[in-house]
Amino acid sequence: MGVMGMLHAGTLNSLKNVKVVAVTEPEKLVVKFIQTFLPNIKVYENYVEMLKKENLDFVYITTPVKSHVLIAEYCAKNNIPFFVEKPLSKTATECEELCKILNKNSITNMVGFNLRYSSTFTKAKELLDKKAIGDILNVKATAYRTLVLKEGTGWRFKKESSGGGVLIDIGIHVIDLLLLFFGKIKNVSTEKISFVIPEIDDSVTGLLRFENGLTCIFETSWNVKNYRLQETTLEINGTLGKIKVNEDYVKIQYFESDEESNEEILYRQSLYKGVHLDIGGSMYASEDADFVNCLENGTQPGSNVINSIQVQSVIDSIYKSSKSNKQEGVIYIE
Amino acid sequence: MNKKELLLGDNPFFGVDNLSQERARKKSEKLNRLENIVEIMHYVENLGVKGFVVSTHPQLKHLIKYLKTESDLLEKFEFYPILPYAQGYVSKAAEKGIISGMNEILSSGSISGKLKIVMQGSIGFIKKDVRKLLETFIDIELLPLHEVKKNIVFLHDGLTDLALGLGMKDVIETFVNRIKDNYNVKPGLVTKNFPSLVGFLENCDIDIPTIMTSFNPIGYQMNPSRIECEKQILKTKVIAMNTLAAGYVKPLESFEYLSKFGLNSVVVGMSTREHAQETISAFKKFNS
Predict the structure, then answer these.
(1) Contacts of B235 (CB under 8 A, 6+ apart)
(2) What's the half-sphere exposure (Cβ side, CA atoms, 13 Å) at B149?
């Protein structure tokens, strides 16, 4: 189940018409925990057995990254709607078969880019769609979180399980937001990448060029001090003003003349809307409610597999550029 | 806790600022020196604040040691611990995996020299007795506070709300019983889902303990809505947290709103003398 599995299970279980009935968990102590405290939930050792025996309406995939695509393919082939935690996969090419299946069989599917449900980023998107700061000139995007810089023992610290380090862990949120806000990225140049643990990047800096001509300076790092929680920031400069947005606030500065400007800050407190059950953040409640809502209405969430493969393609290109030391074009899998 | 009290919260001392992380970093650099924390504690104690709400943050043991050797404040304050330090558990689980993370936490108990607790935990681990393990984690979290006066020990909202979502009545009962039986202290629950929790406890036939939950005039972190939270307020003893919506609301506005309800106490993180003075005088205006 993992931490994210428990969080989603609790959030989903409290939604109307949803009941968590079965989980897959290989770790015996966690199995014992579930059997002791959640006796009505069936525990299976592997997902195939669970999916064959249970008649499930949908599945949440919160396993280590290396198994995401395999389980998602099984669900897609068997018409079982699914949610999969981000990142969708270790690489975009891994998703080719999944992409083909979903293009033929459009079951409801979602990838867990929870920042799309943050009130501040939602507000920023609304302002950009209204052209509140005019035409966009350039963007700076960052994602930081302090992480203890020693070798961990979990799957996140093995490239064959996780797909990489900070870029695929938290930098991926920035890439998803950039694609959502500004459209496709054409090519990337990785300026700097560092590894504290072999093959697990802890800091990445680069330049992203969009198909519409926009450029974005991009940086993500675990190797920073005093970022207790993840902090994702977009600084967007337009012809009429600028927007700075992160998980805490949206700051809008309108240029009124060469010397004057008018500033407004909207904190998440003022944008807050109550949710059905908040466990570890209201974004997760909104995300899970949206998935169930889409399922009931037979629609696709914005953050679906097909869109998320594009995010994965950009990540692949950033890693490729870090090795080739040159600009790399982004090849999208459609 | 016989009358409405203002309690000091520890969040700003340990780099937590719910208004923005940017502000938290600036504060943290200035405020997390132990002498600064003690200075604020002295200041608010002189103005009548006698309760201190603390998370079981890794720095807590250093603060307790400092308070013990450098001041008389341990005698003057009653503590309201919130456990576990959820952020630490989540980070350890993410970094090392759930099982390795748990092992490391058990090892941290042995460093503190409480072999009996660790032995119990290890037996629980080997026998896969998860209730025993849960009790061991409670004991390890409370180790730094074994010499301080504890008024209520709270279960962190991360765990309370997870138990609520999944309907884990036994987790809440294990916590409540451990705190009552082993420490002879009142148990409490922190939640971001006050009405749902009250309903759940009623359905499970669990005596509703003191609940710490968000109450503020703008409805921040009041789920599913401010109105629904207000409707449930008389059903139990409530300590209001997030009262200033993390600095978004002024103390006067907040305490005027809170004065309409039968709350037991209010917790506010006060990080400077100026902020403490403003908060305490606003509190007294509506609670004298």
Answers:
(1) B198, B208
(2) 11
Domains of chain B: 5-85+145-287 (3.20.20.100), 86-144 (no CATH)
3-state class (DSSP) for residue A193: strand
CB contact under 8 A, B25 and A227: yes
Compute CA B240 distance to the chain's CA centroid, rounded to the nearest angstrom.
11
Of A37, A270, A277, the CB nearest to B196: A277
Strand, coil or helix: B49: coil
A2-114, CATH topology level: Rossmann fold (3.40.50)
Helical H runs in chain B? 21-31, 34-46, 60-70, 73-76, 86-96, 98-111, 115-127, 130-142, 157-166, 169-183, 194-204, 226-231, 251-258, 273-287
- Which chain B residues have a beta carbon less than 8 Å from that of A39? none
Distance from the Cα of B136 to chain A's closest Cα (Å) equals 14
Residue in A70, A54, A42, A322 with CA at minimum distance from that of residue A190: A322
Choose among B212, B272, B211, B270: nearest CA to B244. B270
A129, two tokens: 């769609």
ipTM of the complex: 0.91
pLDDT digits (tens, 9 = 90+) for B212-267: 999 999 999 999 999 999 999 988 999 999 999 988 999 999 999 999 998 889 99
Token readout for B84 is: 């576990």
| Beta-carbon separation of A36 and B130 below 8 A | yes
Between the alpha carbon of residue B168 and those of residues A41, A86, B77, B141, B164, the distances in Å are: 11, 27, 33, 21, 6
Assigned token pair, A256:
């009124």
Domain at A115-281+302-329, CATH homologous superfamily: Dihydrodipicolinate Reductase; domain 2 (3.30.360.10)
Instruction: Tell me which DSSP letter residue B189 carries.
Output: E
Say if CB A138 and CB A237 are below 8 A apart.
Answer: yes
Residue type, A48: V
The structure's pTM equals 0.90
Task: Provide, as residue numbers in chain B, all residues whose Cβ is less than 8 Å from the Cβ of A275.
Answer: 223-224
